[in-house]
Amino acid sequence: MAGRGSGPDFVEALARGLDVVRSLGTASRPMSLSEVAEATGLARPTARRLLLTLTELGYVRTDGPTFALTTRVLELGTAYVSSLGLWDIARPHLEALVARTGESSSMAQLDGSDIVYVARVAVPKIIALRVEIGTLFPAPQTSQGKVLLAALAPDELERVLDLPSRAGLPPYIGRTPERLREELVEVRARGWALADEELAPGVRSVACPVRDGEGVVRAAMNVTVHAAETPTDRLLGDHLPLLLRTAGDVSAEWALWQSRPHVEVTPAVDRAAGAD
């Protein structure tokens, strides 16, 4: 993986460290030093130093011969969402939506051909999949993924769909690529998407877009139910209108947040240096 940079300011050591984080993040179990070295294309001594550095920083834990990520890596993702101002805005709306529906609600963004969960308010119900901040799922198999894919330009959509999933799930064989593209046209036209037990048995969800101040789809918000408890007509008839209203409110508040005046403040040390 290393060796991609060509600019004079490219820091190869940082790139290699991120390669190690990504390799651990895509594994379904702790990895040995040899496995990390092979996955990243790094020499064993280099991989070892990077793993020990990440362990000392708290991003990796070790159990003898194996290594795994810790929950601290979630800080990296939540820092990104916080920098957009989106999570602070969305949180009370998600909590209110969950209070009204009694069902879990999440927000996700596109990461290659997968979605990555960036916000979630859950209720204590047992479903077939474990979901937390940072979880990856193949975009075509999820309602949020369909919303995000439908917002892409045709050439970008083809590029994304050609990318391999990093979610570690078996490929979905229930829908042809042609049918997926037809469904995405429908999603784009109606403004919401349904995933009915496509990701896992018993998991049914509906999602709609969250837009920035320029109207660009930047995230998707969903309501997830257990298929045995909530039929599709109730999900679409009762929960979808609440979801659409909530996503609209989040989009509107986010647009206001983005339009607020930005003032760059010069640190006092810099001001003092300029006065010399």
How would you sum up this structure, described in words?
The N and C termini lie far apart (47 Å). The chain is globular and about 60 Å long. It is 47% helix and 19% strand. It is built from 10 helices and 9 strands. Helix 1 packs across helix 2. The strands form 2 sheets. The protein has a 6-stranded antiparallel β-sheet, with helices on both faces. Strands 1-3-2 form a 3-stranded antiparallel β-sheet. It has 2 domains: 12-69, Arc Repressor Mutant, subunit A (Orthogonal Bundle), CATH 1.10.10.10; 75-258, 2-Layer Sandwich (Beta-Lactamase).
Spatially, the strands of the biggest sheet line up as 6-5-4-9-8-7
Strand content: 15-25%
Assembly state? single chain
Number of separate strands: 9
CATH fold-type name of the largest domain? Beta-Lactamase
Count of domains = 2
CATH superfamily of the largest domain: GAF domain
Task: Please give the structural blueprint.
Blueprint: H1 12-26, E1 31-32, H2 33-40, H3 44-57, E2 60-63, E3 66-69, H4 74-84, H5 86-101, E4 104-111, E5 114-121, E6 136-138, H6 143-150, H7 154-161, H8 177-190, E7 193-196, E8 203-211, E9 217-226, H9 232-258, H10 268-275
Antiparallel strand pairs: 1-3, 2-3, 4-5, 4-9, 5-6, 7-8, 8-9
Helix pairs in contact: 1-2, 2-3, 5-9, 6-8
